[in-house]
Amino acid sequence: MSLLASFRDSARAKPILERIRARSGGPASIMEFCGGHTVAIFRSGIRSVMPGRVRMLSGPGCPVCVTSNADLDRAAALAKLPGVILATYGDMLKVPGSHESLAEVKAQGYPVEVVYSTLDALKLAAAHPDREIVFFGIGFETTAPAAAAAVLQAEAKKLRNFSLCSVMKLTIPGAKALLSMGEVNVDGVIGPGHVASIIGADAWRFLPDEHGIPVAISGFEPLDLLAATDAILGMIDDGAPDLVNTYSRIVRPEGNRKAWGAVERVFELRGASWRGFGDIPASGLALREEFAAFDADRRFPLDIPPSEEHPACRCGEVLRGVAEPTDCTAFGTACTPEHPLGPCMVSSEGSCAAYYHYKRQAV
Amino acid sequence: MSDTHILLAHGSGGTRMHALIRDLFLPAFDNPYLRQGNDQALFETPSGRIAFTTDSYVVQPVIFPGGSIGELAVHGTINDLAVGGARPLGLSVGMILEEGLEMSLLEDIVRRMKAASEEAGVPIVTGDTKVVERGSCDKIFINTSGVGIVPEGVNIDGAAARQGDAVIISGSIGDHGVAVMSERRGVQFSTPVVSDTQPLHKLVRRMLGVTKDIHVMRDPTRGGVATTLNEIAGQSRVGIEIDEEALPVSDEVNGACDLLGLDPLYLANEGKLIAILPDEHAESVLDAMRATPEGAGACRIGRVVEDRPGIVRMNTGIGGSRIVNVLSGEMLPRIC
Hints:
By secondary structure, chain A is an alpha/beta fold. Chain A contains 17 helices and eleven strands. In chain A, helix 2 runs parallel beside helix 13, helix 3 runs parallel beside helix 17 (351-358) and helix 8 (118-127) packs parallel to helix 9 (144-156). Chain A is globular. The two termini of chain A are 39 Å apart. Helices cover 32% and strands 22% of the residues of chain B. Chain B has nine helices and 13 strands. The longest helix of chain B is centred in the N-terminal third of the chain and has 18 residues, at 103-120. The chains are: A alpha/beta, B alpha+beta. The interface between A and B is medium-sized, with 33 and 25 residues.
């Protein structure tokens, strides 16, 4: 059996499931912050095997989903600037902004290029010296090191036609904002494995220490998620909130210092606008003054009209965990992956997309 | 051939076009039907119903691990005939070439088509070539159509799945999709995944030799197994239940899918078929399939159920359950 297969093995899953079912505490709401976890949970059918006491909630950890319409509108406007090629991850393409998605902008003939990594964007810049390559940088701590590396490489290679439109966000301030709003009851948290691999498991220690909420850092395979859920339920039932790292094959307590060092060298903190949350102080990454030559915000100042939200879209509430996708009257009718009203229906990590693909009943 | 690249003149109807046909296509695809030299191929038909199908191939890159646009164009159309239970009689080939295409690449693709056609025993009986200006197509697009004969007593139909039927597949899934995607993204694996492109008509003949009572047969190409099963569930108005642990996926494809963010259930296959048939025939048909190279990895993956008509469900590895939806939007660029 391959290493991967062993984390999907039913024989290994069974005893963990039995342990989860044998626990006899009261109702427990467990939130996964990470969109990758949301999808993995639905794909593996984990919600369908949980005992009735466990309620699983999806949180705000989908970087495409929390990108505000104002930032999407800015990306569309950048793509329409003469001489600019907008490079973006494919996931952003279909997300509707106030008036149009980047896919629609591309269809109008403006250059929007899908890249698989920031380094592909650098290759574009090298291949088109007469054009300005603007990389639309979305993501959390996981993608920030790649963006930082791209800026550092562009500087080293003197690629003056590359710039970054940074809308990158930090998960810890996002999680703190969610908890401080007090709208949703969270008894335990499945901690984001990939984010923790960069910033360290210990970064999530504030959950048990400051909020009394147990957290288990988890990987993305079914057994990872079952083990994390089991650990969280154990801490809830014992009344002993703590931090447990069930993804120790990847995540170290201190994270990846080298990767985060690059982020700190290139970026500084600034406020950022999150869909569903509004402005959260010190939750975004902006290029430092020293890298202003690579900062699309500084190089292409734009006057963007105020953004608009689709009145029927409830992505904001879904991201805060106060509404399930199926609570939304547009879900599966006015809003589908082909005709999305909001990002949660089209992002590969979106809750609405996960519900639509894996849980939707006959519509 | 003296030209090193395709010129517009190769599609103009003049001497260059005739030279291309005379020197490249005719010798490669040579057979009595082509030798008739008419605007159409004429052939005798045995009794039975005629099956007719067409497909266009625009895959990029045109050469990928395990095959090329040439093999796909031959196998794909043979397979569309085969999964209807038809014995393929012949194929047409329409080529749209981009001005500037390297002649050596065209020759390579034609050689591959010749080999695929000969190996399958299905002749290319008529053809057409057009050349378009640079930028009007991407190197080479190929359309193939095919005709075949469906023997008496064979009634394979997407609407014919019945409650209690077994759902079987001829081998591992996702290989073609991963082969093309890894080539496109410049990702290399220590064990390279190669396309499964292959003709299935001989396998189908063996299956029908065991029983003609096969209700549904499809080749899960674009959209993959998930989309094909959803089509069948919709057409037949039945529920389909599959078992995650029964799905044949190689470790290499699983690993590549994790890396590239793909789901094997939605990846194209170019040499696999799904059959839905009465449960009592399943084991004997599977035995016959496993005795062939094309069906060596054949296995059961699920069953047709009464509840939730139109819906495909999967029993997951950890004992859960979830819906398997159709592919929405374009997960993948041009792959076939």
